[in-house]
Amino acid sequence: MDHLIFRILWRWARRRHPHKSCGWVRKKYFHTQGHQSWVFSGTVQGRNAESQTVWLYNLGLTPVKRHTKVRGEANPYDPDWEQYFERRLEIQMAQKLMGYRKLIYLWYEQDGKCPICNQKITKSTGWNSHHIIWRSHGGSDSISNRVLLHPVCHRQVHSLGLTVAKPRSKKGVGKA
């Protein structure tokens, strides 16, 4: 635990219980969790009136996620860079919960099939998120303007100038 945070928590606990000893305060608020000692914790009432111990989250255990800088020569209004920006957006979507839900929604909406080759899209085949109306031509990032394609099919769409239509949505697919 960071020394400054520890001092603040210790002073708070001592101020809250001015007539109790240091040993009593330590036993009440600071416990050992795994290999760490002096971890701040407390008890709360659970759903069934059972007391549960909750621990102060250690920010040092949070993994660092670096972002990738946009290439200097990349232009979002240039159709030549459309695939580059689609790939960046796909990576960002997969890393965020809401974006992951959108990918799942698209997959169910298409019945798990690529609209170009009509083959199943799986983790092993991979996928790319394609804008039906390119963003460089004024298209939006909304679900209604997106389809999932196999990477090979996606390259063919861009290199051959093919148009992609949104597959008819199945019944029972809710809004994302």
**Spatial ordering of strands, largest sheet:** 1-2-3
Report, as a whole number of angstroms, the end-to-end distance. Answer: 40 Å
Q: Helical residue percent?
A: 25-40%
Low-confidence stretches: none
Sheet-strand content, in percent, reads: 15-25%
Report the major sheet. Answer: 3 strands, antiparallel
Broad structural category: alpha+beta
Order of helices and strands: HHEEEHHEEH
* Number of beta strands: 5
Tally of helical runs: 5
CATH class of the largest domain: Alpha Beta
Could you say how many structural domains there are in total? 2
Task: Summarize the structure in words.
- The protein has 176 residues and is α+β, with helices and mostly antiparallel strands.
- It has two domains: 3-59, no CATH class; 79-160, His-Me finger endonuclease fold.
- The protein is 34% helix and 15% strand.
- It is built from five helices and five strands, in the order ααβββααββα.
- The strands form two sheets. It has a three-stranded antiparallel sheet. A two-stranded antiparallel sheet has the order 4-5.
- A hairpin with a 5-residue loop joins strand 2 and strand 3.
- The longest helix has 14 residues, at 3-16.
- The protein starts with a helix and ends in a 16-residue tail after the last helix.
Layout of secondary structure:
Layout: H1 3-16, H2 22-29, E1 30-33, E2 36-45, E3 51-55, H3 82-95, H4 97-109, E4 128-131, E5 146-149, H5 151-160
Antiparallel strand pairs: 1-2, 2-3, 4-5
Helix pairs in contact: 3-4
